[in-house]
Amino acid sequence: MENKKLEQLQKYTINNEEKAGLTTNQGLKMAEDEFSLKAGERGPTLMEDFHFREKMTHFDHERIPERVVHARGVGAHGIFQLYESLADYTKADFLTDPSKTTPVFVRFSTVQGSRGSSDTVRDVRGFATKFYTDEGNFDLVGNNMPVFFIQDAIKFPDFVHAVKPEPHNEIPQGASAHDTFWDFIGQNPESAHMVMWHMSDRAIPRSLRMMEGFGVHTFRLINADGQAHFVKFHWKPALGVHSLVWDEAQRIAGKNPDFHRQDLYEAIEKGDFPEWELGLQLIPEEDEHKFDFDILDPTKLWPEEEVPVKIVGKMTLNRNVDNFFAETEQVAFHPGHVVPGIDFSNDPLLQGRLFSYTDTQLSRLGGPNFHQIPINQPVCPFHNNQRDGMHQMNIHHGQTSYHRNGLNANQPKPVPADQGGYEHYQEKIDGRKIRGRSESFRDFYSQAKLFYNSLSPFEQRHLKDALSFELGKCKSDAVKANAVALLNHIDRELAEETAENIGAPIPKENCEVTSSKKSPALSMVNTISKPDTKSVAILLNGEPDVELLTTWLGTFAKHKINYSIVDKKLRSLNQTVKVTDTYETTDSSLFDAALLISSEPIIQTPALEFIQTTYKHYKPLAVSLSNPNALEGSRINLEGPGIYHIITSTIQPFIEGIAEGRFWNRML
Known about the structure:
Blueprint: H1 2-10, H2 50-60, E1 73-82, E2 101-110, E3 125-133, E4 136-143, H3 156-163, H4 179-187, H5 192-198, E5 213-214, E6 219-222, E7 228-237, H6 246-255, H7 259-270, E8 275-284, E9 309-320, H8 324-329, E10 342-344, H9 348-364, H10 446-454, H11 457-472, H12 477-487, H13 492-502, E11 535-541, H14 546-558, E12 562-567, E13 581-582, E14 593-598, H15 605-616, E15 621-625, E16 643-645, H16 652-660
Parallel strand pairs: 11-12, 11-14, 12-13, 14-15, 15-16
Antiparallel strand pairs: 1-2, 1-9, 2-3, 3-4, 5-7, 6-7, 6-10, 7-8, 8-9
């Protein structure tokens, strides 16, 4: 299966690395490509210059409309492997046959900013997966947060208009810290749960490889006997869930705005293939109403303590794209792309998305034939009576293009369900046509409180700081007051501290939800921590012991730790060890840890600033100093947590510190 998709894409590949004569798009070989056709050397350009016209016309039309949301993204190819058959729950072929390898394409993205915005802004991250199955494409189009801001799709244009740059000045780009976003939040209390996630560390992931993915919506799985289960989809990263700190995220935005996409690209190029396990939360149809929340509400999650996540398979991203535009930019996802055995629920946000996505692709990709673009083509054949349209790539044979027909034996004809044809789940529906929502959707604050309760003290501290930063950027006193009033329904102390920091009034009445309920799965404290693929800056202050340094580099490589050697200028230390970065070209925020090697009595300013920032961001720091007093007077507590004094080749404690990642007790 994986090879089938790769072969399909290769059919459309032009290898520009091979020697070939330059031609026009019509195949005409051209002898000149630097000068337009002119009437004399200093004369006017002639209209008959067909090569200039073709080249310039194509250039003028190279850009297509960017996505309204999720414009900035990065993609990669991979495979999905099922662990065990899920035939008890679904008849989907790729979820029932563990012997099959299913090719996938994944696109990660930010939501608010344009294609030119930074990777590390505070934002929701898109996590969209296209499974190329034998039964057609299945698109799992989700985010790195399990809930959303709104309950009904009719409000989606309003939400996006509110969070996007404000229309009068197109500011701010790639950020939600402005009046219209927080005005929307204050006027729409259903957003309370999601805004807590948005203000948490989940909104500034360390790496795309280190974040969870969620299908967000409730779907249905249907087995061969017609039995249904409600399902939520999860992606669990093999490297655990890790974040940046806010100051670090802002520094990276200036130092390397492509930080996340470069991190993903380089990991795959090195063979450090990112992995996620697919998890399912399953609820039998008869248990739909047994919970104290509505399972169809997209602003609610299913606590893992109540509905355990069943791990069913693994996804591995193992190949970068060959061309960003042709693949990442032109890939077209749609939650309505399903296969037999997967169906929808009555989640009103999902229902609206089933219309919106096709409509968007028609605008972006120029017409109804976007499914024929190589990255979007299924690996199985497709036959129907749809014809013509812009960018039609297929040449259809035959006289008929309608159903039913007698001239062509009614071909192509529908496939019965027992032979693999898709059949919608026959849900019984009885109700009046109304514009409204169920009373079970009106609990806006309980799960927001659950999320806040579940965070560790340092995560709560970061969330408070994020609220103060975001609301502190707002100009309207009314917007600030309404946002604090919303927080007052979640946690009184949170509302009071935020109000004090932003100069907003504190509501007289305490409306806090009374609950001490927690869900440990919601805190990143309980994640996987390992050193694999993390990065260390090795800082030189003077001349290092190259033999000892080489030993340490071998230890880093053994633990799959990436490293860069930083000095005042690029140079070789021996035949194999080289300085790869200078203090001018890199920054502490781009690394997970730092090792300072100093043979000088004084630490020079660039190295000192580097390690002080490392310390400030709670990262592990190792020092090997010829002068043990060289850091006296610095802002570093050398006896504090996460500080390692390396004298000999024993570097293992530092490796363990890199695995731990952050030392939050420096905050105390």
